[in-house]
Amino acid sequence: MSDVNSESQRNTEGTPLGFHSLREEARTELPVEGTLPEWLDGALIRNGPGAFGLDDAEVDHWFDGLAMLYRFGFGGDSNTITYRNRFLRTDAYTRALTGQPEGGFATGESTLRERIVGALIRDPYDNTNVITERIGDRYLAFTETPRWVEFDPDTLSTERHVQYEKSGPSGQIACAHMKRDPATGTLINLETEFGRPSQYHVYELLAPTERRSIASVPVERPSYLHSFALTPNYVVITEFPFDVNPLSFFKPGRQGPFIDNFQWRPDEGTRFLVIDRDSGDVVAEPVSDPCFGFHHVNAFERTVEGATELVLDLETVPNPDGIGSLALSELRSGELGEQAGTLTRFSITDPRGQTSIDRIELFDGGTSLPTVSAAQWLDQHRYVYAQGTDQPMTEWPRRVLKIDVEDGSHQEFTRPGTQFGEPLFVPRSDEESVDGDSATDDGVVLTVGLNHDDARSRLYVLDGQTMREQAVATLPHAVPFDFHGRYFPELA
Question: Cα–Cα distance between 152 and 139 in angstroms, integer?
Fold first, then answer.
């Protein structure tokens, strides 16, 4: 089976691979070198920018590329992987076809007031290029707006737009990364509502169009929030001191990309809003040193000397200056030099009493897009998987890391001429698991690598314990560097 659609493809000569536009949509089977585990029976669906323009006009920033889904199907044959990639047919995609790419995170010259009014009055921005998730029996793609795009998980065809009923508190922007509680299957997310006062609205998703409010927290200057932390009993909002004055929204203001309206105010420190999931009360607001970050890796609760401790692992950088370095002009120049991410642990002790907060670095190397096993969400984890890079970051990551957060050791995987995307750990799905501490790394790591020697991307299947290559499959093209993936075991 092979079906490749090359319509509208153009020559990308001169554009560095990884930051090129892929206009080819493929449907094929990938021969596998090596052996796939018999228990690996599901699908990996990744999301990210597939093209930065479909005409001569392009967006300005990596974060604003047009959403493309990539599906890798496993099961039934240990020697092949089914593969297809497809653009989401969104309003943003339609406008790009006419040479009018839509401004998003860091593209465009409209004022922030126009952005907010547009989100309130017209359909919010729908270029959902960050991640995919399952809600009930429906599969959706997300970005940082409350407008989602549903797709068929087998064909990747775009089904419909989804917006939940705004019968309760709602906002104009949302966290791209909602959190799932494995004990209940519940998904939780938060939105920011700009106004007087502004508010963070935390809610539980009952269905794609139905939700239950958990809390609404007033805030004077809303922070930029890409993700948050969840434990069995608490929601923790990490307020980095990168925020915006909402009073400026409805006044004549300077034009520029959305993110340019946020200000870095390090003197405020980083505040952690600890919210009780049952009552919705803010029970603690500890403040730590200033930092910035996009991704919460995982969070859990434990008891230390009789006191409750909330442990949050994040990837942090000293400040948000690196956002500018992710502009396409900077990335394509190859002149990177920003601080890479640092795997950082914050421990909040006694959130209902004499609260204190501690901060330590878990790994002294550079990281990006860190993840943990889905089997460890909201539970104490030992291993974190991430892209590995130099510190500071001088080039796109060329290593895949497995970091032991208990002893600080790490293992890594590399291939000559290859740069890697986000690694995802898939735990073994049968009952034949090893005993002891190592059981939590009994599985495989899936990662896509882009090889510059033959201009092809490959899916690597790594042994979760040794980080050695177990299988590899070559794609029919080079995939631009994407963002996030999810492994869905039910999609056999």
Answer: 7
> In 286-313, which positions are buried (b, 16+ CB within 10 angstroms) versus exposed (e)?
bebebbbbbbbbbbbbeeeeeebbbbbb
Give 297-318 pLDDT, tens digit per residue: 999 999 999 999 999 999 999 9
pLDDT tens digit string along 213-230? 999 999 999 999 999 999
Q: What is the rounded CA–CA span in Å between residue 305 and residue 477? A: 55
Give the domain extent around 94: 2-488
DSSP 8-class letter at 112: H
Percentages of the chain per state (helix, strand, coil), in multiples of 5: 10, 45, 45
Query: Tell me: the pLDDT tens digits for 362-386?
Result: 999 999 999 999 999 999 999 999 9
Q: What angle do CA 209, 273, 202 make, to 5 degrees?
A: 10
Cβ atoms of 153 and 45 within 8 Å: the answer is: yes
H-assigned helices in 35-77: none
Structure tokens at 261: 């309206």
Domains identified in the chain, total number = 1
Determine the distance from the C-alpha atom of residue 117 to the mean position of all C-alpha atoms in its chain, rounded to a whole number.
26
